[in-house]
């Protein structure tokens, strides 16, 4: 049923709602827009008004060339990709296995083992014991120090468990009768059915690794092994230069920072909108358990 | 007929051997990276020296805790942690609720989706980048500083002043999380029975009245549950953003327990002391969590456990 005419009150209300939403969206977008525009501006124009820039007077792409020629940045970018490639398979396999175990019932040791998993959400060793543990396991100053601790997030395992539980038992039972064991069931029956959940979990893990900097700052001492966020940190926050030289470099010393942000941030910003409709499920579970 | 315990264990393993096999990698991970560090917490009761190791370091009882309680900087960090938590609760919490309420009124689906995409974006931007932006905006001729100058302030680097630290921290946190945190409220709103609106419209309720008497009450259970959960985490203020934003000039308001633990432990290498402070923090956290869980159950919510 559609009303023929909107009342005056409705129109005013709509106007307020749409204006507020557009304002919120603008505030969320503007800083990223600024970075994008700043990455195409030359340093002298940028230095005049840091923060205000809707459209540069002249678009210049030199900063991107410099970023892609910068060995420090490229090397750290590659390190971050390596971390993702090593971490994500481990993350997904552990999460899937843990989620499956938590979703199963009837085992005698289910309760104590599930408690063991959940307890780690509420109590952890903390910064120093973790640090000493990494040193003790001889992971210090290796890429594995950034891969193995946090190889599984219990919160994500619970998301996985919930979506496994949503699969009708009859499917699993039918597979059992056909002689399948639990490995077959996970990879042949469950995996294809929870693909959207796994995609979201991949995104969560991937973003977390890509944006992480703290562990690398305490576990990695070798500059050749640091991930991209730590380079950004030293450039953006400690005001260190991106080890470059020459006239072109000096003219874009400021711009190059923004180009580096764009190159390291935009890949992620291109992925999440496609998975957006699946976020709600995780949020509900997170509220109860997290 | 009851079988012996050993027989039951054996039967259980035979029947579920694959399920236990599947759990082994998870178990290995948990033991190596969660439970082993938990064992390491005992250095809080020692005078730990790396050369002696956890097993060889001398025991000192509660001496490290006593040192912490005598340290005015510990109390300062505790106070700042509470302050930041409570400020976040008061100022950050309502904004996503408002966003969800507004989005719920939008019937044009592409507009709604676009606004969602844009407001989710900050959540995916790295903390380092967010803090780098804040630093640029707060420098003397930066955007935020210029806005303050416009309202009659002195041109200055805002990050060097304690009085600006909380506004900067809280506002940027709102910016990062407003869209993401609204997801749960939107999910709750999607669960409201549409017939209620139908009935209200037939009774002649205006949209404001529908929002006031149907939509908002539909959010109250979610809001109260999340508030209680937040109370349970009141001493959990993350260190990442603060480490990137604070400086010695603003330690008096910005230094929280987790950053204090970081400086004491990893910069000063006072391992036992730092672990003791962290353990105290965890203990208080668990008490808060249990209390908030109890309240949550009293309110008729499911609770955590």
Can you tell me about this structure?
The complex is a heterodimer of chains A (290) and B (305). Chain A starts with 7 loop residues before the first helix and ends with a helix. In chain A, helix 3 packs across helix 15 (255-275). Chain A has 16 helices and no strands. The model of chain A has no long low-confidence stretch (mean pLDDT 86). Chain A folds into 2 domains: 8-69 and 244-276, no CATH class; 71-224, MetI-like (MetI-like fold), CATH 1.10.3720. Chain A is globular and about 70 Å long. Chain A is an all-alpha fold and 290 residues long. Chain B has 305 residues and is an all-alpha fold. The mean pLDDT of chain B is 89. Chain B has 2 domains: 15-56, no CATH class; 72-298, MetI-like (MetI-like fold, Orthogonal Bundle), CATH 1.10.3720.10. Chain B is flat. Chain B is built from 16 helices and no strands.
* Helix-and-strand structural type of chain B: mainly alpha
Largest sheet of chain B: none
Largest interface: A-B, 92 and 98 residues
- Cα distance spanning the termini of chain B: 34 Å
The CATH superfamily title of the largest domain in chain B: MetI-like
Taken in chain order, the helices and strands of chain A follow as HHHHHHHHHHHHHHHH
Please tell me what the overall shape of chain B is: flat
Distance between the termini of chain A: 41 Å
Helix content of chain B: over 70%
């Amino acid at each position: 049923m559609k009303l023929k005419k909107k009342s005056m009150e409705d129109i005013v209300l709509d106007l307020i709602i749409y204006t507020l939403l557009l304002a919120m969206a603008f505030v969320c977008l503007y800083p990223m827009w600024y970075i994008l525009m700043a990455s195409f501006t030359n340093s002298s124009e940028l230095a005049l008004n840091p923060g205000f820039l809707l459209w540069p007077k002249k678009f210049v792409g030199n900063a991107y060339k410099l970023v892609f020629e910068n060995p420090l940045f490229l090397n750290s970018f590659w390190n971050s990709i390596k971390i993702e490639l090593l971490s994500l398979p481990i993350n997904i396999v552990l999460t899937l296995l843990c989620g499956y175990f938590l979703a199963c019932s009837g085992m005698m040791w289910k309760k104590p083992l599930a408690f063991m998993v959940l307890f780690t959400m509420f109590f952890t060793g903390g910064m120093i014991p973790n640090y000493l543990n990494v040193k003790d396991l001889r992971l210090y100053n290796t890429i594995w120090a950034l891969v193995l601790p946090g190889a599984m997030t219990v919160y994500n395992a619970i998301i996985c468990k919930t979506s496994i539980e949503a699969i009708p038992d009859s499917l699993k039972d039918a597979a059992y009768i056909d002689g399948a064991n639990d490995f077959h069931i996970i990879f042949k029956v469950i995996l294809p059915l929870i693909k959207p959940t796994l995609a979201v979990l991949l995104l969560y893990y991937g973003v977390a690794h890509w944006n992480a900097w703290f562990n690398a700052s305490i576990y990695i001492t070798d500059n050749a092994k640091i991930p991209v966020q730590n380079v950004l940190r030293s450039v953006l926050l400690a005001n260190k230069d991106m080890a470059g030289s020459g006239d072109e470099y000096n003219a874009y010393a400021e711009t190059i920072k923004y180009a580096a942000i764009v190159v390291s941030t935009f890949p992620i910003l291109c992925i999440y909108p496609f998975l957006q409709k699946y976020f709600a499920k995780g949020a509900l579970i997170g509220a109860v358990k997290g | 007929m009851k079988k012996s315990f050993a027989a039951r264990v054996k039967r259980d393993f035979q029947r579920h051997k694959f399920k236990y096999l599947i759990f082994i990698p998870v178990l290995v991970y948990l033991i190596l990276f969660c439970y082993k560090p938990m064992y390491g917490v005992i250095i809080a009761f020692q005078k730990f020296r790396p050369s002696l190791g956890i097993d060889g370091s001398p025991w000192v009882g509660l001496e490290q805790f006593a040192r912490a309680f005598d340290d005015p900087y510990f109390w300062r960090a505790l106070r700042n942690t509470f302050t930041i938590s409570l400020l976040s609760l008061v100022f950050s919490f309502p904004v996503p609720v408002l966003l969800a309420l507004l989005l719920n009124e939008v019937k044009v689906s592409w507009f709604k989706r676009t606004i969602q995409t844009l407001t989710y974006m900050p959540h995916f931007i790295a903390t380092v980048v967010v803090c780098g932006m804040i630093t640029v905006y707060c420098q003397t001729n930066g955007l935020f500083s210029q806005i303050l100058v416009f309202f009659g302030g002195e041109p200055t680097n805002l990050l060097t002043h304690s009085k600006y630290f909380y506004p900067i921290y809280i506002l940027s946190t709102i910016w990062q999380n407003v869209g993401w945190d609204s997801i749960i409220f939107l999910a709750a709103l999607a669960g409201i029975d549409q017939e209620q609106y139908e009935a209200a419209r037939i009774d002649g309720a205006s949209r404001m009245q529908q929002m006031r008497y149907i939509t908002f009450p539909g959010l109250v259970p979610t809001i109260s549950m999340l508030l209680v959960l937040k109370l349970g985490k009141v001493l959990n203020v993350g260190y990442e953003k603060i480490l990137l934003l604070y400086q010695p000039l603003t330690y008096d308001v910005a230094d929280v327990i987790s950053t204090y633990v970081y400086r004491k432990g990893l910069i000063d290498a006072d391992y036992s002391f730092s672990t003791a402070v962290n353990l105290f923090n965890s203990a208080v956290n668990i008490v808060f969590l249990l209390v908030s869980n109890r309240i949550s159950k009293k309110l008729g919510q499911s609770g955590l456990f």
